[in-house]
Design goal:
With about 400 residues, the protein is mainly beta. It has 3 helices and 25 strands. The longest helix is centred in the first third of the chain and has 7 residues.
């Protein structure tokens, strides 16, 4: 998942807390507005994703990479009860550096890291979308990430924590308004590395360093409970997990993107995204990854697939007009099929828009056509263009 949206979202934290997160204490007379003006980021102060030979190590790389400007832990899943009542969910925690180097720590409250989280739960049968946003400093135990002694990322009482040493089984708990989840995710497919060379270096544009280190766990078997109000439901299903860390931004002229993480019923998976440019064309660095039943994966260039909107939906809250349903076609020869792979991704419900800054649509979809299954679709830049903000 390509989520540079976090760079804009996390500015909320600066506005609320000001520079007191780092160096400004009580009685200084420095307000949040002044702090924002003082907090310009110099990308040259942070490492960039440029090394094609990055030395991946797990479970260590599930933990934080604090020298990079930003990263996220991102889970999306589709689950259902035994009688077919279906739920979707998103659990995302972002980390954002606010200083390039560690400072002298004379207080447990001071930090150079901020954390922001989004949790959503889609109750498909009731046509209800629950969302919650939180943010905190990465200090005093309020929020953080670690791989020692075991993988854990948390923001207050939202948490993903490993149940074994290699982090192939994790426990997730989170709430979103009047809804909550308490689930266990078990890795069912190997980690896959995004990028053309299959090394985790994923380019987002033509400039050097306009890239991220990016890996995914495309299938996590999921079971546990979802609670809506005073009703609790036993559920099972599958979850997609994305991890990216980087120091980068959208190229000029890129207004937003459309992303899919899809889990098919035949034990294959697919990630696709295209970055939309202001002239209506697609950024050539847009890409995808197809994972076969054995866990082998194939990189997809932007010319290897098409994504065509089927309809539109207008948000009654933000006024944004989003695509509603997509026709997706993959060049079959590229992924070892005799014919092209053609299917549709249909929203399980229309109102899955997160009202934040900026707004974006992220929701559960069903897959029908040459392959069936479920997945998640993220759409950004339909209410605010993002190159001006990221």
């Amino acid at each position: 998942m390509w989520r540079y949206i976090s760079l804009a979202l996390v500015s909320i934290v600066v506005v609320v807390f000001g520079f007191s997160l780092v160096e400004v204490g009580a009685g200084t007379g420095v307000g949040a507005g002044a702090a924002v003006q003082s907090a310009d980021v110099n990308l040259e102060d942070y490492p960039r994703a440029v090394d094609p030979n990055y030395d991946w190590n797990f479970p260590e790389d599930h933990g934080p990479h604090n020298d990079f400007l930003t990263e996220w832990w991102y889970y999306t899943g589709n689950v259902a009860t035994a009688d077919g009542r279906r739920f979707g969910f998103q659990f995302t925690i972002f980390r954002r550096a606010i200083l390039p180097e560690d400072q002298v720590q004379d207080s447990e409250w001071r930090t150079r890291q901020m954390y922001l989280g989004h949790v959503t739960i889609s109750d498909i049968a009731a046509d209800e979308f629950y969302q919650e946003e939180r943010y905190s400093r990465g200090a005093a135990g309020l929020a953080g990430a670690t791989a020692d002694p075991r993988y854990r990322v948390w923001l207050e009482d939202w948490e993903v924590v490993a149940l074994n040493d290699d982090a192939t089984e994790v426990h997730m708990v989170a709430t979103a308004g009047n809804a909550s989840m308490d689930i266990v995710l078990t890795q069912a497919k190997p980690i896959v590395f995004q990028g053309e060379q299959g090394n985790g270096l994923s380019f987002k544009g033509g400039e050097e360093g306009n890239a991220s280190y990016y890996y995914s766990i495309p299938r996590l078997e999921t079971e546990g409970t979802f609670t809506i109000g005073d009703e609790t439901f036993e559920v099972t299903g599958n979850t997609w997990m994305d991890r990216e860390f980087s120091t980068s931004a959208l190229a000029e002229g890129a207004v937003g993107w459309d992303w899919f993480g899809l889990i098919f019923d035949d034990n294959t998976e697919l990630m696709l995204y295209h970055i939309r440019l202001e002239d209506g064309s697609t950024e050539p660095a847009s890409a995808g990854l197809y994972i076969d039943a054995d866990g082998n994966y194939t990189y997809l260039h932007s010319e290897d697939y098409t994504m065509t909107p089927l309809d539109t939906w207008t948000s009654p809250v933000s006024g944004g007009e989003y695509p509603s349903g997509w026709e997706i076609t993959i060049d079959g020869e590229v992924i070892g099929l005799e014919d092209s792979l053609d299917f549709r991704a249909i929203p399980l419900m229309e109102e899955q828009e997160l009202i934040t800054d900026p707004n974006y649509w992220e929701g559960a979809v069903r897959l029908e056509g040459d392959k069936t299954g479920y997945g998640y679709n993220e759409m950004t830049g339909y209410t605010d263009r993002l190159d001006d903000r990221l």
